[in-house]
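User: Could you go from structure to sequence for me? I need the amino acid at each position, not a summary. Structure tokens:
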């Protein structure tokens, strides 16, 4: 009797597994205890053990594709056995092997009960959007490096994909011709959605697309649809019409994309010029740097006689990063019962110590470096603050990985300084600078942003005195660092000048009580007000 092999839950946080490599193929005779595949989880790549004796009748997912926990991976039974009923249990009809689709949330009535689309004879395969980070839901095609009709090989980089973390290269794993491209540059495709189709020239790839949209499929992956991200638009609500005699140059018109070099755009933005009013002298009317430098907004024409204003706006599609920030922080804000603790830190000695450090250390030490080091040592003393909320339990982390919030163009990234308590301030400073530069240039890799146990967010350099941060789930706390402000202190009835910095700790009350959070801040205060203690 045929038996289904399902994706096991291999870690406490695992939601799905990716088949990294099949070690067996359809038709192989296998025994209980055989390792049939390697599965990539959210933590590591692990071996998948079989517990049934028989023949591998059906493989439900290709290498590189994801299966949710309890999803069908394979079917083992007797050669020739009809196993279709097992697939129908999950609301799936599969005739050709390789892929299954998940249970539909609501039954969709098919034209015929058992209509299938057989893809087994089509010499072409779909290239799907891979899951490039643990929080990725979709990817945006930033740039195509190949086009339809190009011959590609396994290992070729065919596109650049913008994820919620970084812009990454998309590697092809099929030899053949690109028969179809599923999204234009700037458009989004959900994870496992079809990016392209590669195969023999002239292959009938339309069946693969039909199967993707069909409610009853023969050989398709989980049925995602291509999601088109809206392109930036400029809408004119009210326009003040200028007399024809004093009309602005017509080469660039509001509402129409203006051709300009990147340097010209940057220079125009710096000077506050509207590109629509500038006549381009480059090829095809393109505006150049020289055009910007030579442009006089007050010379002649409409600009010298009256002011013509146009009410307009620009719709900017949300990036993958911005979507993920919104989703993750909303989940945290509306699920965790947060409370806030604020403490003032006298930074006089820290300022003196920093001057001395920068005279001898090979890297320039920032106040944020001092805060990260002090936080890491305080977490060792108060491990409850270094914990995760795991719904059914609290995980107290024995290691200290500090997340460092970094503002980038599209939002916020949190690269991680690992084992911060074991590193010197100079090491922390060098690593923080390197990670910050990678974040801003979108060169971070998954190992750079995963695993943080506590996060520090510093807006002091922007002149912010005090603020609160939203917890970076599943962490239990996050520290908001304000700027150092010179103020007046009183001691023994005498006034004196001093420097104060405010720290605000956001706590998840499910894990951290007020007294625990206060004790952590007290330790942090002691380290920052007397930095020598960090070296003892």
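Assistant: Here is the amino acid at each position, in order:
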């Amino acid at each position: 009797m045929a038996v289904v092999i399902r994706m096991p839950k291999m870690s406490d946080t695992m939601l799905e597994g990716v088949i990294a490599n099949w070690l067996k193929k359809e038709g192989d005779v296998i025994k209980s205890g055989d390792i049939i595949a390697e599965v990539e989880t959210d933590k590591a790549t692990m071996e998948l053990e079989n517990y049934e004796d028989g023949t591998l009748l059906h493989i439900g997912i290709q290498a590189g594709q994801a299966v949710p926990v309890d999803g069908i991976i394979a079917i083992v039974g007797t050669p020739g056995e009809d196993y279709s009923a097992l697939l129908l249990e999950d609301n799936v009809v599969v005739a050709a092997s390789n892929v299954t689709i998940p249970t539909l949330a609501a039954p969709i009535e098919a034209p015929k009960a058992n209509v299938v689309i057989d893809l087994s004879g089509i010499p072409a395969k779909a290239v799907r959007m891979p899951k490039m980070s643990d929080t990725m839901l979709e990817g945006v095609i930033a740039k195509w490096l190949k086009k339809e009709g190009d011959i590609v090989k396994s290992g070729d980089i065919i596109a650049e994909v913008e994820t919620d973390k970084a812009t990454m290269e998309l590697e092809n794993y099929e030899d053949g011709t690109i028969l179809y491209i599923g999204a234009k540059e700037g458009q989004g495709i959900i994870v496992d959605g079809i990016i392209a189709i590669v195969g023999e020239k002239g292959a009938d790839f339309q069946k693969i697309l039909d199967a993707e949209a069909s409610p009853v499929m023969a050989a398709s992956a989980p049925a995602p649809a291509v999601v088109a991200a809206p392109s930036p638009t400029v809408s004119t609500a009210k326009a003040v019409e200028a007399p024809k005699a004093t009309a602005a140059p017509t080469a660039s018109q509001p509402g129409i994309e203006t051709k300009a070099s990147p340097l010209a755009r940057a220079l125009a933005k710096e000077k506050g010029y509207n590109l629509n009013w500038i006549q381009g002298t480059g090829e095809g009317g393109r505006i150049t740097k020289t055009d910007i430098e030579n442009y006089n907004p007050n010379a002649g024409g409409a600009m010298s006689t009256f002011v013509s204003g146009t009410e307009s706006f620009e719709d900017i599609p949300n990036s993958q990063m911005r979507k993920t920030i919104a989703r993750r922080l909303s989940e945290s804000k509306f699920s965790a019962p947060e409370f806030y603790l604020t403490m003032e830190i006298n930074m006089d000695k820290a300022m003196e110590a920093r001057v001395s450090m920068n005279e001898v250390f090979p890297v320039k030490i920032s106040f944020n470096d001092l805060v990260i080091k002090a936080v890491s040592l305080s977490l060792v003393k108060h491990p409850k603050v270094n914990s995760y909320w795991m719904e059914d339990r609290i995980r107290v982390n024995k290691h200290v990985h500090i997340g460092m919030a970094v503002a980038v163009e599209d939002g916020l990234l949190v690269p991680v300084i690992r084992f911060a308590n074991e590193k010197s301030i100079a090491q922390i400073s060098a690593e923080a600078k390197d990670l910050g530069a990678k974040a801003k240039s979108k060169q971070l890799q998954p190992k750079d942003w995963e695993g943080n146990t506590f996060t520090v967010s510093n807006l002091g350099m922007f002149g912010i005195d005090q603020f609160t941060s939203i917890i970076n789930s599943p962490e239990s706390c996050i520290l908001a660092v304000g700027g150092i402000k010179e103020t007046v202190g009183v001691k023994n009835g005498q006034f004196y000048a001093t420097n104060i910095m405010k720290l605000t700790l956001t706590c998840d009350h499910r894990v951290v009580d007020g007294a625990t959070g206060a004790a952590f801040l007290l330790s942090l205060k002691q380290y920052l007000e007397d930095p020598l203690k960090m070296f003892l």
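One structural detail worth keeping in mind: The domain at 234-315 is CATH 4.10.320.10 (Dihydrolipoamide Transferase).
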